[in-house]
Amino acid sequence: MKTSINNLKTLAFVLVIVLIKTSCTPEENFATPPLLIEEPSINGTIVDIEAVLGIMNQEIEKEGENAKVVFDNTNNFMVGYVVSSDKGGNFFKELILQNKNIGPTAGIRLLIDNSPLYTSYEFGRKVFVKLDGLSAGIENGVPTLGLLDGNTIASVPSFSVNEIITRSTEVFAITPLEITMEDFVDRFLNLYIKINDMQFNKNMVLDNNAFTFAAESNDEFDGERIVESCKTGRTTIMSTSTFSDFKGLTLPSNQGSFTGILTKNFLGDTFNLVLNDPEGLIFDIETRCDPEVLQCSSIEVGNNILFEEDFAGLKIKDLEEKGWINSNTTGGMLDFEIGDFAENQYAQITGFRSKEPIYEVWLISPEIDIANSANEVLNFDIQTGYDNGNILEVFVTTDFTGDIQTASWKKLDANLPRGPLNAFGDTVPAGPISLSCLNGSVRIGFRYIGGDPRATTRYHIDNVEIKGE
Known about the structure:
This protein is mostly beta strands. It contains four helices and 31 strands. The protein has helices spanning 2-23, 49-63, 161-164, 316-321, and strands at 45-48, 69-70, 76-82, 94-98, 107-113, 125-130, 135-139, 142-149, 152-154, 156-157, 165-171, 177-178, 192-200, 222-229, 235-241, 255-264, 271-274, 281-285, 304-309, 325-328, 337-341, 344-349, 359-364, 368-369, 377-385, 392-397, 410-411, 428-429, 433-434, 441-450, 458-468. The strands form four sheets. Strands 1, 2, 3, 4, 5, 6, 7, 8, 9, 10 and 11 form an eleven-stranded mixed sheet that branches. Strands 19, 21, 22, 25, 28, 29 and 31 form a seven-stranded antiparallel sheet that branches. The protein is elongated. Residues 1-30 have low confidence and may be disordered.
């Protein structure tokens, strides 16, 4: 019995030695072979997004702007690169695809009834989209791909996504296409772009009353905020979803660059900028680029009245018939009106209870000829009330051709008083403001920028007059 136990001990010892030697075998003998992931095989013809848009535009040329093209029995697959991300909640049930990762020339929106999408189709992912069964057309002003439902483009159902979209194994770095606001045309829609030298309008970022991205009380679906070019003064809208993760962040007050998607608003009539996330804003230049005021040396006042308007006995339509322009450039209903008090009439504006979260409203004078005069001076009276921000500015231009955006506006050093919070202030003169260094014909523009309820100061403008010699 003792011999059997000894034999068992010897056998156990040998097994331990074998296990130790096995565990000490060189690592490379047991290394996991490299995992080879092959690019998916596409059984069809690969086409560019530019070709898809070309086919769509041909149909629109023939049948009108609401035409849709239906792809059937083409065996075509559209290749594209994902440049949107719904990780931050600013995109929802859609992929924005462009045709190149560097220097793109075409982009399209693909509607998908599924969320989130970034987990499978992350930013930079190359994808192939089977076109058969899909339709393309213009929806909300932008080229859109999906399923035809009546005469609208609807989302691809979630159960069909894997049949329609094939993921490439490659994820590319995307280089944004650098453009300016002046470059905005439809061919840049759905592209990942970068705009340098821009800032939010100063009325949006006042120290004690700064706007959030999309968390104001009247932001129903999107927060729309005015951004402006530091080089030209051109403005556009940056739109942020009220469902985004960053809607409550405060707008940056500095200047810098935007990187994101160029699209259009819900009505499809205005270009909009949309971020994937807040990191698309690099506002790291501490100084702002607010316009400098016009500096004309002479302040002598002549006796000849070149222009005058006291608004007496007028309705707003009468004012427009006299050549004044009253325009809400952000698409809302708020505009200047004719007000009266104690038998005195004036032009007035307030955003209070307008329920417009953003507005840019202009009141522009008729054309005023100063070519044959000298020492021109502008005067007008101004009353400020219910003041929650100095949101009126006064400009002059010599090259107005009918488009507010393309005119070269020079800011005037007008005396615009601050008013009380819950009452009206006194009516005070805003001039004299010299225009003596200008020539030809001029227009005076009163620009009102704000948003209800955060910036709704009320202004009364009266006795606009230009004198010269």
